[in-house]
Specification:
By secondary structure, this protein is an alpha/beta fold. It has four helices and four strands. It has one domain: FAD/NAD(P)-binding domain. Helices cover 28% and strands 14% of the residues.
Length: 107
């Protein structure tokens, strides 16, 4: 079983991934948190992207879920352009947020 200082990897760069990472910090998780996303930009709020951003009514900063400074302040690392297609989980926790295209996890 993992503890409050074990590293956590979160696959996916959407709202669920960001909220999971934030909740871990709120629950005093002291270990490393890494979010892996196949996106090329930091996690963003998708409904405004499909509306305001594409209509040029919002810029990149307005649709971001967290700024680089906020992520750094919570000690959350984000690796962009990192597609996760499967995982072998030997110990610790692996979170696969809802909305992912594939849910195959080899364990």
């Amino acid at each position: 079983m993992s503890g409050p200082s074990d590293p956590v990897v979160i696959a996916g760069g959407g709202l669920a991934a960001v909220r999971t990472a934030q909740a871990l910090r709120e629950l005093q998780h002291r270990g490393r948190i890494m979010v892996l996303s196949d996106e090329v930009r930091l996690p963003y709020d998708r409904p405004p992207l499909s509306k305001n951003f594409l209509l040029s009514k919002a810029d990149d900063m307005q649709i971001r879920l967290m700024t680089p400074r906020e992520l750094e302040g919570l000690r959350i690392a984000v690796r962009l352009s990192q597609r996760v297609v499967g995982s072998t989980v030997r110990c610790g926790k692996f979170d696969w947020p809802a909305g992912w295209r594939s849910t195959t996890i080899d364990s």
